[in-house]
C-alpha cells in the first residue's frame, strides 16, 4: 500500500468528517432550514450507502473470503461479518443512549437558534460537554473506518461513500452547534466543537488502519468489507431515513433514496 493511497484515503475521510462544519455554518449564516432539500439529501445519502453496500462492498468481501476459504465457508464468513458490523454499530448507539446523550443525528433546525425553549434545554449540555464529545467520537469512529478502508481498497467506491457520509454529517453539525452555542454564548466555540466532532472520523480511520495494518490479508480485508457494508446499511436504516422523514415529507426522503441508488448505479456502470 503506497503512501499516496493512504493520503488519498485520509483526505476523503477528512472531507467526510469535516462536513460537520458545513452544518455549523448553515446554523449561523442562514435564516431558515431548507427542510425539503435536507430531506432529499439525507435520503440520497441513504440510497448511495444502501446500494453500494449490497451491490459492491458486500460482494467484494465475499469474493475475497471465497478465495481464502472456498465457496460455502467464504459465503458464511461474509454473512457473519456483515451482521457483526451491524451489531458493532448498534452497540455503539446503545452505549451513547446509556450515557444519556441524545443521538447527534436528531432532527435539528436553524430556527432553533431563535427558540427560547430550545435554548433553555440546551444549556445543560455544557456540563456534559466532554461526554458529548466522546459520544460523538465513538459514534463517528466506524464511519471513519468504513470510509478510510473503502477508499484505500477502491478509490471510486471511497469517493461515493465519502460523499454520502459528508451529506449525512451536515445535520450533525447543526445538532452540535446549536446547543453548544447556547451553552457557551460563543459561535466560535460552537463551530470549534462541531469541527472537532468531525475530526473523529479521520482519526478513527487512521487508528483502525495502523492497528490492523500488520494483520492485513485478503481474509481480513474481506471481513472488513462485509462489516463495512453492515455498518452502512444500519446507519442508513436507523439514522438517515428516519432523520430524512423528520425533516420533510415521507415521499421526499424516498425520492432522495431512489435518486441516490440511481446515481450510484450509473457511476458504477460508467467506471466498469
What does this structure look like?
The chain is an all-alpha fold and 272 residues long. It has one domain. It contains ten helices and no strands. The chain has helices at 3-18, 20-29, 35-69, 71-98, 116-122, 129-153, 155-184, 187-212, 218-247, 250-270. Helix 3 (35-69) crosses helix 10 (250-270) and helix 4 packs across helix 9. The protein starts with a helix and ends with a helix. The mean pLDDT is 77.
Concise synopsis of the structure shown:
The chain is mostly helical and 272 residues long.
List the helices and strands and how they pair.
Layout: H1 3-18, H2 20-29, H3 35-69, H4 71-98, H5 116-122, H6 129-153, H7 155-184, H8 187-212, H9 218-247, H10 250-270
- The helix/strand order is HHHHHHHHHH
| Mean of residue pLDDT values | 77
Number of strands: 0
* Helix run count: 10
For the biggest sheet, the summary is:
none
Nearest-angstrom radius of gyration?
19 Å
- Tally of discrete structural domains: 1
Strand proportion, as a percent range, falls in: under 5%
Give the helix/strand class.
mainly alpha
Query: Could you name the ranges where pLDDT drops below 50 across 5 or more consecutive residues?
Result: none
Distance between the termini: 23 Å
The proportion of residues forming helix, as a percent range, comes to over 70%
Shape: globular
Amino acid at each position: 500500500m503506497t503512501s499516496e493511497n493512504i493520503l488519498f484515503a485520509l483526505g476523503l475521510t477528512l472531507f467526510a468528517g469535516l462536513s460537520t462544519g458545513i452544518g455549523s455554518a448553515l446554523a449561523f449564516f442562514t435564516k431558515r432550514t431548507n427542510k425539503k432539500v435536507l430531506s432529499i439529501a439525507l435520503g440520497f445519502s441513504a440510497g448511495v450507502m444502501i446500494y453500494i453496500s449490497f451491490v459492491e462492498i458486500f460482494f467484494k468481501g465475499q469474493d475475497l473470503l471465497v478465495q481464502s476459504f472456498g465457496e460455502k465457508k467464504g459465503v458464511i464468513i461474509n454473512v457473519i461479518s456483515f451482521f457483526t458490523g451491524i451489531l458493532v454499530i448498534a452497540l455503539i448507539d446503545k452505549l451513547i443512549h446509556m450515557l444519556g446523550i441524545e443521538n447527534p443525528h436528531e432532527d435539528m433546525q436553524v430556527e432553533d437558534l431563535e427558540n427560547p425553549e430550545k435554548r433553555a434545554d440546551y444549556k445543560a449540555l455544557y456540563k456534559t460537554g466532554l461526554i458529548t464529545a466522546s459520544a460523538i467520537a465513538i459514534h463517528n469512529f466506524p464511519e471513519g473506518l468504513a470510509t478510510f478502508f473503502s477508499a484505500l481498497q477502491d478509490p471510486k467506491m471511497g469517493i461515493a461513500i465519502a460523499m454520502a457520509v459528508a451529506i449525512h454529517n451536515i445535520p450533525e453539525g447543526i445538532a452540535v452547534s446549536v446547543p453548544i452555542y447556547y451553552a457557551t454564548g460563543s459561535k466560535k466555540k460552537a463551530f470549534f466543537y462541531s469541527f472537532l466532532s468531525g475530526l473523529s472520523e479521520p482519526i478513527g480511520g487512521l487508528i483502525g488502519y495502523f492497528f490492523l495494518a500488520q494483520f492485513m490479508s485478503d481474509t481480513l480485508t474481506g471481513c472488513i468489507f462485509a462489516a463495512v457494508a453492515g455498518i452502512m446499511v444500519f446507519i442508513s436504516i436507523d439514522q438517515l431515513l428516519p432523520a430524512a422523514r423528520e425533516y420533510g415529507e415521507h415521499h421526499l426522503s424516498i425520492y432522495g433514496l431512489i435518486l441516490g441508488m440511481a446515481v450510484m448505479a450509473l457511476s458504477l456502470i460508467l467506471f466498469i
